[in-house]
Amino acid sequence: MIASLKGLIQQKQPTRLVLDVAGVGYEILVPLPTAATLGGIGEGAFLHTVQIVREDSLTLYGFATLEERSLFQKLIGVSGIGPKIALNALSGPPIEEMVGAIRTGDIALLTRLPGIGKKTAERLVVELKDRLGDFGDGERAPATTATSDAEEALVSLGYSRSLAEKAVKRAMSEAANTGNAEALLRSALRVLTGGK
């Protein structure tokens, strides 16, 4: 079983990358937050991985943190949730928000995740509510983590460090939800591109 990989990024798309490890290119599917933390093509990367072997395929899923990988494994253990739905769920709200929704039975938030209907959301709550003891307190990530994640994502997209810091700072002053790295990244990109 492949538990982690370290190598150079050969190809990078929003939820897929190819990592060159000692001359072998591994295709790895990743959630958006993980992709945002990685550098560009030719840069080094380290990923915690889950290898899923099916009759007709062998697929690697990669994660920036052990927490992401652990939640992915818990999600795919729930009936009706496969790797694709779990990956999409991890590309949605921050982990802390999703864990909080599962713990409190927030079906409305869970059903906003792609591929998760009401019955699946209810199963998530029933099956995982008491199995998430290793995930913080279910609250939103601190803003400092969100800002640094957003800055790193901008740098990986080719912006200079100083420009990334300025854009994130401006986005922080304008954004209502500063604890969400993805929302902050979108706001910072709007600042940089002059979008509305």
UniProtKB/TrEMBL annotation:
Helix-hairpin-helix DNA-binding motif class domain location: 73-92, 108-127
Principal location class: cytoplasm
Database matches in InterPro entries: DNA_helicase_Holl-junc_RuvA_I, Hlx-hairpin-Hlx_DNA-bd_motif, NA-bd_OB-fold, RuvA, RuvA_2-like, RuvA_C, RuvA_C_sf
Region described as Domain I: spans on this chain: 1-64
Positions of region (Domain III): 144-196
UniProt GO cellular component terms: cytoplasm; Holliday junction helicase complex; Holliday junction resolvase complex
One Pfam family of this chain: HHH_5
Domain of life: Bacteria
Subcellular compartments: Cytoplasm
GO biological process, one term: DNA repair
Molecular functions per Gene Ontology: ATP binding; four-way junction DNA binding; four-way junction helicase activity
Record field: transmembrane: none
Region (Domain II): 65-142
Keyword annotations: Cytoplasm, DNA damage, DNA recombination, DNA repair, DNA-binding
NCBIfam families noted in UniProt: ruvA
UniProt free text on domains: Has three domains with a flexible linker between the domains II and III and assumes an 'L' shape. Domain III is highly mobile and contacts RuvB.
Record family assignment: Belongs to the RuvA family.
Assembly: Homotetramer. Forms an RuvA(8)-RuvB(12)-Holliday junction (HJ) complex. HJ DNA is sandwiched between 2 RuvA tetramers; dsDNA enters through RuvA and exits via RuvB. An RuvB hexamer assembles on each DNA strand where it exits the tetramer. Each RuvB hexamer is contacted by two RuvA subunits (via domain III) on 2 adjacent RuvB subunits; this complex drives branch migration. In the full resolvosome a probable DNA-RuvA(4)-RuvB(12)-RuvC(2) complex forms which resolves the HJ.
Name of this chain's protein: Holliday junction branch migration complex subunit RuvA
Organism name: Eiseniibacteriota bacterium
Gene encoding the protein: ruvA
